Amino acid sequence: FGLIPSAVSFCAALSACEKAAKWQQALGTLRAMASSHLEQVTFSYNSAISACDRGIQWKRGLSIFLNMAASGLELDVISNNAVLSACEKSLQWTQAFSILAALKLRILRPKPRSYTAAISTCRGGSLWDCALVLLANLDSQGLQPA
Description:
single chain
């Protein structure tokens, strides 16, 4: 039919990949979107990061997150929570702490889910003291754990 995909159709495909945890297809779709010279949007990257999270691919999710930052796209709370969740599932506490610290530096207010994901990563490294510091930080901001 000679149809040309739009940014909306790419985002819809990425959302479907995310929901099905099809991270390989999400990465291919994100590359296809980039090569079609359509404007990349935060939503498309967030969906790809979330697909990697659901597929337990924290390194790939982090790579997308870093590429997103390098390209100048806005890293929003959804971006941060998706990559934090990927780190949480793989017990990558050092990465989670770095992301949470960077989130604060960008003056985005971390959500309770951001803290909960970072605290959860502490269980793998037996970092109870770090978990307590994060919990105290959460409390000092008047937030409740998610």
